[in-house]
Amino acid sequence: MFSNLTQNSVIYLLDLKGNPKVSSGTVERVSVPMPKYNSFNPGLEMVVDIVASISGERREFKGVPNGSVANFGDNAFVIAENKEALNSYVSAMLNNSKSVLESIEKHQKLVKAYEEAMQELNPEIKANAEKDKMLFDLQRQVAELTALIKSGNVKTE
Fold first, then answer.
1. Which tens digits make up the pLDDT trace of 85-115?
2. What pTM was computed for the model?
3. How far apart are CA 3 and CA 32, in angstroms?
4. What's the pLDDT score for residue 137?
């Protein structure tokens, strides 16, 4: 729990901007746990404020939920009270990304199947798709003929 951190405890940060990067630092100060009132949830959540020096920079983290890991947004950062907690978080994110990559082929097939279903359900979509394909084929043929004419391999009369 973040509230158990003391001065000079090590804190870990995962920067999520761009390529994720791990850094660590030392805690300068941790506030006593205080309630965070939330009008949407009648229960109390305890939060702490943390001041730490990370990579030579003094950082203040306000309203940190009193747990082991706190995520401050997908494009921001994650802090953890210990290396194991951050390791678990990073491992979960790695597994999630691997899962997404493994599902690409499946979803490409689904997109094609759903597009075909949309064409069957909406004849105007099917007609437009057929017109687009015919136009693409004509453009390709004209480009090929133009290239042949320019190369001099075809006589024009």
1. 999 999 999 999 999 999 999 999 999 999 8
2. 0.65
3. 7
4. 93
Domain ranges of the chain: 2-100, 104-151
Buried/exposed 126-142: b ≥16 CB within 10 Å, e otherwise: eeeeeeeeeeeeeeeee
Cα Rg for the chain, rounded, in angstroms?
A: 29
The residues near 83 (Cβ < 8 Å, ≥ 6 apart) are: 10, 12
Determine the Cα–Cα distance for residues 55 and 12; give it in Å rounded to an integer.
10
Beta bridge partners of 34: 47
The Cα 15–Cα 103 span in angstroms is 26
Between 74 and 130, the more confident residue is 130
